[in-house]
Design brief:
The chain is an all-alpha fold and 31 residues long. It contains 1 helix and no strands.
């Protein structure tokens, strides 16, 4: 269970970090 949950959490955090980076780029370009 832990072997699956740890990479899954890392994947979720990575996805949110990528999403935030894209949002930041979009905001900086709109300004």
């Amino acid at each position: 269970m832990n072997l699956v949950s740890i990479p899954l959490k890392q994947g979720v955090y990575f996805y949110f970090n990528e999403y935030n980076a894209i949002e930041a780029l979009g905001l900086s370009q709109s300004l």
